[in-house]
Fold:
Amino acid sequence: VIPTDDGDLEAGHRLLNWVWYYHLAEDSPELAEAMTDVNGKRHYGTVPRGQISPTAWAKQKALGLSTMPAPIAELIEKTETPFVTRINDIVSTNGSFFNGKLFLVGDALAAFRPHVALSTNQAALHARLLEEVLEGKLKPADWSRQTLRWGRATWMLSIVTGTLGLGSRLALAWAIIKYICLIIGQKLRLVN
Ligand SMILES: Cc1cc2nc3c(=O)[nH]c(=O)nc-3n(C[C@H](O)[C@H](O)[C@H](O)COP(=O)(O)OP(=O)(O)OC[C@H]3O[C@@H](n4cnc5c(N)ncnc54)[C@H](O)[C@@H]3O)c2cc1C
Structure:
């Protein structure tokens, strides 16, 4: 549950923020249609609220109404201004640059698939550790090592969790193997 644009959180006024994860193949006409706005502009990351092509939304809505349970279908039916965001995951190869004068924090350091809902935890962790760096209690290189270690493990976990819900069994097995290898490697300090 989230406030309205005016900050109203009263029951009956407040909004429900919902997400529908949906696979579209790279280079498919469906992805192109979903990422092209009402003015014909193709977006890479997000098509903002009010800008989704009515044809693309009508198709997605029809699918939702015919396949989702009644309460979810009602949510879809009543949604007036949806937006679409392409999901990416990535981890930087380094966390601090220019001899500890520049740091990557939050999503800039590591962007996870959303299924683990740990990205805000990461941003908070970075803020806490950065305080230690600024107080001279943690070296920039150690900050980089610690944050990348946590980031890589959480990134792999997000791939496992996402594949559990949306991928094939083979893809899931492969993701689990890679995750276990990473965790063992980190425990044995073979990798960060
Ligand atoms: C729809 C949605 C749902 C989500 N749900 C969850 C959830 O349930 N749980 C969870 O943990 N995470 C969730 N996330 C992810 C979470 O919101 C992000 O991981 C988190 O906000 C990252 O924080 P950040 O500070 O790294 O980046 P941001 O919050 O993106 O902050 C970056 C800031 O930098 C500003 N900025 C950008 N460019 C410039 C510039 N050139 N100059 C100055 N300022 C600039 C931006 O305006 C922004 O304020 C969700 C994200 C989305 C989009």
Remarks:
- The radius of gyration is 20 Å.
- Residues 85, 106-108, 114, 117-120, 123 surround flavin-adenine dinucleotide (CB under 6 Å).
- Strands lie at 46-47, 84-85, 90-91, 96-97, 102-103, 110-111.
- The first strand starts at residue 46 and ends at 47.
